[in-house]
Amino acid sequence: MICSNNICVSLSFLADYFREGNSDAEDSELRFATCQSLWKHVKLEAEVSLEDLNKQLFDNLVSFLRRSHSEFQEKTTEWNCQMKSREIPTAALVLGVNVTDHDLTFRSLSEVLQNRVTPYVALLQAKDCPGIKNLMQKLLGQLMNCYVDVDSEEDDYVQTSQNRIRCSMTSLITWYESVTKKTDFETPSKKRTSSRHWQSPPVVVIFKDMESFTTKVLQDFIVISSQHIHELPLVLVFGIATSPMIIHGLLPHSVSSLLCIELFQSLSCKEHLSTIIDKVLLTTQFPLKLSEKVLQVLINIFLYHDFSVQNFIKGFQLCIVEHFYTQPLSVLCCHQEEVKKRINSLSHNQCENIRRLPSFRRYVENQPSEKQIALLTTDGFLKETVQQLLDDLNVYHENYFPVLRCLHVFTSSLPKYPLGKQIRELHCACLENRVWETEEYESFLQLFYAPLFFFFLKTLLELKESRRSKKLTKFEMLRFEVVDYIDSVVRNYLVPADHKTLHEIVYFNTASVLREHLNAAPRVALHTALNNPYCYLKSQALRSDGGSISNKAPDICIVYKLHLECGRLINLVDWLEVRKDASSASSCSHARFIRAVSELELLGFIKPSKQKTDHVARLTWGGC
Amino acid sequence: MPNLEHSAYPAATLLHLESLVPCRESQVSMLLSIFGERQQLSFPSIFIYGHTSSGKTYVMQTLLNTLQLPHVFVNCVEHFTSRLLLEEILIQLQNRSSETEEAAHVPCDTFNDFVRLFKQAIVSQGLQDETFYIVLDRAEQLREMEANVLPAFLRLQELTARNVTVVLLSEIVWELFRPNTGCFEPFTLYFPDYSIGHLQKILCQNHPPEYSADFYSAYINILLGVFYMVCRDLKELQHLAALNFSKYCEPVVRGEANERDTRKLWKNIEPHLKKAMQTVYLREISSSQWERLQHDEGEAGQLKGLSAHAHVELPYYSKFLLIAAYLASYNPVRTDKRFFLKHHGKIKKTNFMKKHEKTSNHLLGPKPFPLDRLLAILYSIVDNRVAPTANIFSQITSLVTLQLLSMVGNNDQLDGPRYKCTVSLDFIRAIARTVNFDIIKYLYDFL
């Protein structure tokens, strides 16, 4: 309850921000609502498609659990089973280096396990478990609470307060025996709730970030649990970001021999990205589209920096918010059915906004003069035209995506992938400029012409009746025809979006804002602030031209500027002298200089040097 | 064979005990003579040490259970704080007689409390007239606890004025335990490793009921022939024996050989065991996977072990960061000019090679380097311009959490952090290949 209240409060704050932040707050509430609903849908779509991708992995894991569980349950007196040492079933789950995405994966994994296998799932994180004691505390806390969560109706279960439970394996086993015994005695009517779980369900312990755990904690825990594996059906899941070799690195043979390790690998994060792009961006389902530059920023951050699909989605969210916030006309960026209503209720100001759009102005210029006047003066006529133009834009999108996919099928089968291996590369190429004017497209057509030969030859050889010589010429013609046809389709339907009128309404294209927010450069910002304080302080007195710095600048800026010209070691006395020269001697006291120097030290530019007294060492080189 | 003899126990029990502890008769008889009769005071503390699976825990457990001596058995790894340990001893002691009735939990924070509660419990359990044994398994953990715990356990008899003996079991020698303030010296007893003959004898004791002892003994012989070189752990050998026995029996089951056809059986099992040594013994593949493979007659080659998945996919700049870190770790600082400056002139290796640098840097291991050197190398090996964005810095931190880099010394970000690259040459070469970077050309060792 509290949680949902909080959301309401924060939502209304956001709405206020939307309203106040913009001077011409046209339809801000409606824009805000549209933005919210769009994001909700995008988020849902993304979550569903990511879940689908993980399905196979989770199925494998569940069947592994089932297998190891049946081994646990068979209490045979067979010789073989008696002789074998009982190992702890362990799944090594290799998830890739995009650690930020793992949280979601583990959350859905524990959901799947709780729905299909066992209510007893514990998630452990290295930062919570610096010692074995903390680990046991976390484990007991999570497991013993989960019982209450599953059957919340049964309040008669004595929940001893958490800190009174001895945090040892023995209390865990006692607890496990008590809860499993209890479900055994359940009345048939209640059985229904736990029937999706197995008999004496396993206790799954998930180590989310295996690499960060200390070896001692892991070893101790494994040694302890292996002593009790007969009483407590424990299953371990190791979340691994790098490679399963890390297990051998962390655990000595005496400990790893207590485990029965099987390997599970998730799909690579690049495949996740392709799916998200496919489901969220290359579709007419969502009205908002990204321009080539914006998409490139998002993809570059993904490929160059973090491999994180979650961050990609967050970036897309930022695009949505930014678009609806800055573009007053984004109110028209909604589903086809709504558009008409919204156009009719557009205010005069909004009509003026439309007239100011560059793409619309281009459009007006190409119209006959009487129509131009009507468009610029009559709001009603403008609205009609806008309606029609938006319909056109919609039709364009409906054709664009199928044709794009089609072209991708052709290009991806060619050697060297002239237009990119992934559909996202092709999409970017098409958005950037007329794809048929690029060299890559030329080479694509030529390459495409060649495999057509084999393709048709195969079909033609099956038609035996016609004469050989005639066949070939006919065949040549056919080849040209096919290539021409594809070429014309591409020219017709893959026009870059920014050639389309009113594309500003549905395309978000301020890549610079996105880059500033998502790929910040703290060192550069710091350098700019110190080197050119006007940039942030906006005081006319600080305005300086060229490389010089104003006398009125804060002390730290002047000191910083001077230190840039020094070598690795800076003599404090010299520095002070130069500082005094730089400004009129009266205005710079010793104390102010020392304060500026210690501020620089705090910012990490210099540190006291042990090599020479009264010297400081620079910690940076160059400008940034 | 020295038969166990002791006046206090009936001969039949002793005989039974002897059959349960093969190859440990002398140690058991030694322990028996120290224990003496039930009511006699025994030595206050006994320290038993020996390698992994030399039967310390098993012998103590069997001895105490068979002779029905009152005791508690506590694993110090499992009870990792002194409080847990002491409480566990008391709980076990209180639950000895009254199995059903759960004794009220009494907190025991200090050793003083423990002595008091222990005395009460001994009286309430009626154990005043017998020696009570406290066995502390994995006793090396005691050293991690408060300084008073180990010395107090060693003279528990004196502190409680009760007939109690503390037995410490450990894999390391007593000299590593002795506190520098001095303590009561326990009686130390060494359990030597099992010889190959002992192993053979013990492993053959539990032969499967459907086959003869001789047949199984021949199998164990072959098994030890393969594994004795790498593994002397009894538990592990037993596990391996159980895992592979069905394969050994295969020719007999199919009727291709009889039980005495040792040569044929050897030919069948030997390559199989060698494969097992490289895979399942190292836990490259799990035991259950191994059994399934055997069952389905599949080739072990189809199933890749853990080490086969060494490849790690990294973001583009992370790859270059790692390469730069590797170069910074293995190249001397002075050579950076030679590798990364465009017009460095002709510098031959001999010119700037000091005497100690003749040894390969790869043999000496990675050296720490400051952050700025890493970034400088990064900027010069990446073709396009790299902005020093927050993402680059956070990538360095992620590489540290992934344990591909490690932070050296104090982790004060302001004071110029220093890193080391912890990946192997093979690993970095694989990474460099994916970005078309010829790393060998940039390594001083391969100049």
From TrEMBL, chain A:
Gene Ontology molecular function, alphabetical: DNA replication origin binding
InterPro entries recorded: ORC3 (IPR020795), ORC3_ins (IPR045663), ORC3_N (IPR045667), ORC_WH_C (IPR040855)
GO BP terms: DNA replication initiation
Origin recognition complex subunit 3 winged helix C-terminal domain residues: 523-578, 581-621
Compartment(s): Nucleus
Pfam families: ORC3_ins (PF19675), ORC3_N (PF07034), WHD_ORC (PF18137)
Keywords of this entry: DNA replication, DNA-binding, Nucleus, Phosphoprotein
Family: Belongs to the ORC3 family.
Free-text function comment from the UniProt entry: Component of the origin recognition complex (ORC) that binds origins of replication. DNA-binding is ATP-dependent. The specific DNA sequences that define origins of replication have not been identified yet. ORC is required to assemble the pre-replication complex necessary to initiate DNA replication. Binds histone H3 and H4 trimethylation marks H3K9me3, H3K27me3 and H4K20me3.
Designated name of the protein: Origin recognition complex subunit 3
Species this chain originates from: Cairina moschata (Muscovy duck)
UniProtKB/TrEMBL annotation, chain B:
Residues in ORC5 lid domain copies: 216-283
Annotated family: Belongs to the ORC5 family.
InterPro entries noted in UniProt: AAA_16 (IPR041664), ORC5 (IPR020796), ORC5_C (IPR047088), ORC5_lid (IPR048866), P-loop_NTPase (IPR027417)
One Pfam family of this chain: ORC5_C
Subunit-structure text: Component of ORC, a complex composed of at least 6 subunits: ORC1, ORC2, ORC3, ORC4, ORC5 and ORC6. ORC is regulated in a cell-cycle dependent manner. It is sequentially assembled at the exit from anaphase of mitosis and disassembled as cells enter S phase.
Main location: nucleus
Keyword list, A-Z: ATP-binding, DNA replication, Nucleotide-binding, Nucleus
Domain Orc1-like AAA ATPase, residue spans: 21-167
Organism for this UniProt entry: Cairina moschata (Muscovy duck)
Compartments it resides in: Nucleus
One GO BP annotation of this record: DNA replication initiation
Function: Component of the origin recognition complex (ORC) that binds origins of replication. DNA-binding is ATP-dependent. The specific DNA sequences that define origins of replication have not been identified yet. ORC is required to assemble the pre-replication complex necessary to initiate DNA replication.
Cellular component GO terms held in the UniProt record: nuclear origin of replication recognition complex
Molecular function as annotated in GO: ATP binding; DNA replication origin binding
Domain Origin recognition complex subunit 5 C-terminal: 314-443
Protein name: Origin recognition complex subunit 5
